[in-house]
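Quick sanity check, Cytochrome C oxidase subunit II:
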Amino acid sequence: MPLTQSTFTRTDTAIPLIVVPEDTCADWLASLDAPAQAWAETTGFAGKIGQALVIPDMDGAVQLAAVGYGSATDRGRGRFHVAAALPKLPAGTYDLRGDLSASALEAEALGWLLASYRFDRYCAQSPARALLIAPEGVDSTRIEAIAAGEALTRDLINTPASDMGPPDLEAAAKQLAEDFGADMTVTVGDDLLTDNFPMIHAVGRAADRAPRLIDMTWGTAGPKLTLVGKGVCFDTGGLNLKPGASMGLMKKDMGGAAAVLGLARMIMALELPLQLRVLIPAVENSVAGNAFRPQDILTSRKGLTVEINNTDAEGRLVLADALALADEGKPDLIVSMATLTGAARVAVGPDLAPYYVDDLSLVTALEQAAEAVSDPVWRMPFHAPYEAMIEPGIADLDNAPKGGFAGSITAALFLRRFVTDTPRYMHFDIYGWQPSEAPARPKGGLGQGTRALLAALPAVLKL
């Protein structure tokens, strides 16, 4: 799958683009010549976030442009402030200038690339874009690698299930492996039973496109990191069929898989000195005569039995078998990412990435990184008193505890039962979707927590 625009342009000629804070806007406007001042006054440019000013020359071509940077208070309420004005700039090549700190300049440059993303696979034409020269002093290679990883995540989520079933997700992972010299094996269909992945098989067996486990490895030295991503390519809810309104966005239920593949791309492109493993259980939760049923009891790879009280709580089932395999390798860190529960959205909304971890050193590293790279996360508790809620009595575990309380927490506790030999485990219950347009985040598929994780890895794994 080709990536959309996620790189800086290379040219010697560009339109100066000035970043103008609100509190210094009057002084900056006073430095312009009289016609430019008059034009700025006509347009109402005042340096507010989201404002853009384009000053033409005598021939009508753009000679200078500016974007508002707002006040410190306004900047604290959002992120990617230059990108907020990008839709108002005409197509062209721009050279970003302004009195920005190194970290702010890097953030705004990344925001520009993220804002330039378009999902145009099904469009006959794509509009011309405003391009950016890599600002002096930023690590353009790193920023481009991050933007490309995010573009991959968005592309995978945005693709409809008709073109992004388990075989297509496998093909995307295979292409990524080939691009970076990684190794990959895939276990498909009834071979899942032979190789002891019974819950992945049970969830996916009713679909025409066979379930599978994707296993990609890269790197031969350094600490071991295993990423596990939920790859439910479409979720009908199974025999506990979702209502139509709830099924409308279920092409994004493989958002965890898309996120870990995007993060893997960043890690490999930046050649981080670690040993990476990516595990993706790729299935469709469909309705057929052989679909798994409410009240079935499944035996997992770990040997734990699971009572099925809702076939729409299938993501934790496929993740459980993959996590058991990850745990057998005893890596230094396991991270799972999944669009797992609606309860997480009720708790923190679509903009925050909730995560669970017991190791406080990981909390510190992740939250410092998240703040630095404008990728917000929020810690949720592995609350031990709720363990009894996932123990039905007739089996070891319940996949859907009754009562409706603490749905994200009980799902996380369920997953933790399958990581027993690896001391450090972190789980993200992400949304993977931007419900409305925002700076650097067009409506549609979205990576969450991946940039924060990437920034935290050096401290977490002592790279």
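Posting the structure with no commentary besides this: Residues 144-461 form a domain with the Aminopeptidase fold (CATH 3.40.630.10).
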